[in-house]
Amino acid sequence: MKGIYKDIQETISWIKHKTNHFTPEFGIILGTGLSNLTDQIEISYAIDYADIPHFPVSTVKSHKGQLILGMFEGRKVVAMAGRFHYYEGYSMKQLTFPVRVMKFLGISLLFVSNAAGGLSQHIQTGDLVIIRDHINLMPEHPLRGQNDSKLGTRFPDLLHTYDKEMIQKALDIARKNNIRCHAGVYVAVQGPNLETPAEYRYMNRIGGDIVGMSTVPEIIVAKHMDLKVFAMSVCTDMGYPFEAIKVTTEDDVIEVARSAEPKMTTIVRGIIKDYKLL
């Protein structure tokens, strides 16, 4: 990770200068079809990724490609309207760089959202899934290489990565608002192709409830930097059982994600409103 710390400091200095030293409490990463949550933020600053030093640029349809800073439920937040993926050609260190930037901006809790495929017969298209654990099947790792102790420990323990109290809080909010919501295990794969029926079956058998092409690298880096995390998926298509699988396009995924976005926003809103910072 040689050189990353210097890049982070340069990026932080640039952002603080542009935002009059805005110091967010929470970070939010918005996945495919989910960037409209930023419409609920009282925006103070909106910065194109292309203008930020050392930031990658999102190439995925429906990702706005902006860093949003403002107020949400009376709390200061920084939101990524669109994320980066390994399949876009970025290295793991590049695509997780914004997580490190948000940490140094001042956040103590990171929200991560994504669109994902269902691996359980109990999960339906449009359902929300609060991630309680993950299985990492990606071919690269964001912490590979020389470790910088200024960023985190060499061997972070992932045992308590997903906070049980926040998971239960989210499920309670969903129940009170009649939102179909589950707690489940997220399987991370490289992409960009959707999986074969045999791969869906395999991931179901090893304990997966949903599958996607993001999130886990960001979660690992957040944990490396001692950030609390809360992660949530919108099930946009079914990969299990076999009879439920159908041809799915990117537009299909975006449409389902956008229709489910208000439900996701309700849960994020409830957690942020009641969250007590340490």
Can you characterise this structure?
With 278 residues, the chain is α/β, with parallel strands linked by helices. The chain has a single domain (4-274), classed as Rossmann fold (3-Layer(aba) Sandwich). The chain is built from six helices and nine strands; from the N terminus they run αββββαββαβαβαβα. It has a five-stranded mixed barrel with strand order 5-8-7-6-9, surrounded by four helices. α1 crosses α2 (92-105), α2 (92-105) crosses α5 (216-224) and α3 crosses α6. The chain is globular. The two termini are 29 Å apart. The model has no long low-confidence stretch (mean pLDDT 93).
Q: Looking at the structure, what is the overall shape? A: globular
Strand order of the largest sheet: 5-8-7-6-9
Output the structural class: alpha/beta
Q: What is the rounded distance between the termini?
A: 29 Å
Percent of residues in helices: 25-40%
Radius of gyration from CA coordinates: 18 Å
Report strand %.
15-25%
What kind of sheet is the major sheet?
Answer: 5 strands, mixed, barrel
The low-pLDDT segments are none
